[in-house]
Amino acid sequence: MVNPSDDEAPKRVAYRDLERFICQVLMKVGVREEIAQVEAEITADVDLAGVHSHGVQLVPTPTENIRTGTVNPDPPLRVVVDHPASVLYESDRAIGRYTSATMMDVATDRAARFGVGLASIRGVAHWGRGYSYVRRAAKAGYIGIAYTNATVNFPAWGTSTPSLGNNPMAIGIPAADVEEPVVLDMAMTQAAIRKIMDAAAAGDAVPVGWGLDEEGRATTDPRAILDSQRILPMGGHKGSALAFMVELLTAGLAGGLLCFEQGTEGRPDDFAGGSSKTFLAIRPFGSWLFAKTDELKNHLKSASPAPEQGEASWPGEHSRRFRLEYETSGIPFRTPLVRLLEKLSSDYSVPLSWL
Predict the structure, then answer these.
(1) CATH of domain 75-186+235-301
(2) In terms of pTM, does the model score above 0.90?
(3) Angle at which helices 335-348 and 15-28 cross, to 10°
(4) Which of 270, 278, 337 is nearest to 95 (CA)?
(5) Local structure of 147: helix, strand or coil
(6) pLDDT at 4 over 70
(7) Taking a C-beta distance cutoff of 8 angstroms, is the pair 31, 9 a contact?
(8) Which fold has domain 190-232?
(9) Cα–Cα–Cα angle for 91, 185, 314, nearest 5°?
(10) Which of 49, 60, 288, 305 is the most buried (most CB within 10 A)?
(11) Of 140, 132, 133, which is closest to residue 175 (Cα–Cα)?
């Protein structure tokens, strides 16, 4: 979202122009066009949905990792175990978004044949946002569920130093309007760590409950939270327990690197291709699911409001609103991201057309 306190007005870029720009940047570091296109489409779509913390802002990391040979831009996908409805792949530091989209497509293909389909993979880089893959399944008419593990980055409940990854999960449910699936995407910390980092960079405060300072006190200072590394789990012990279980649904199931193994003793971390991911697709029993989804949406929107808690919205509703607005007016970027985009443009000699 655009921060209204910024001194400079945001600059805007059309979604297709941003997608084209990202694709060309990736191709400059050696990514094949068909793979770069998938990566770019997913990345730009995250910004289109208003979540700038996980969109083009992350592009410098994979481009640098690909340029230096840390991440494989054309990864081998080797089948390790193959059951009728499920399959395990392994790769070698695979590029994240393309590989994740491929795995969700494998899961939906199996679900088309068997009613349910599951694909797990070990040895893959950061996926950006889990929303992208379960929305992909939901738009195809399937329930999509996706999990990833991450490098150790927050203290489990009852510990004072980072001991688990915040291990995001996402769920997508199709609706009657194919463009309006219900999509939940959440990490197991109270807030995504990238959002805390963005707040620190912008000099913004964060809500109470996102983390603690060095003394164990609740704070609204994102820098104090990052310095202490005491980012709080969602729902206290419940979020911590969910992170533990997602670790086993990903690295445990796939035989990959556990959170505390990533980034140690020469092994890759999440961004360098050390994570494991699991994708599940479920074929609905009947078309009534689409109607039920819409009925539940309408029920929620008609419930008596509690203004002190903010608007009651179904999962993915805000992203849908941003998508509709930005498709017409362009995607707005405030100054730090404008500078990042212009640096990418300069570094890789790829032009970007602002509106």
Answers:
(1) 3.30.1370.60
(2) yes
(3) 40
(4) 270
(5) strand
(6) no
(7) no
(8) Wheat Germ Agglutinin (Isolectin 2); domain 1 (3.30.60)
(9) 150
(10) 49
(11) 140
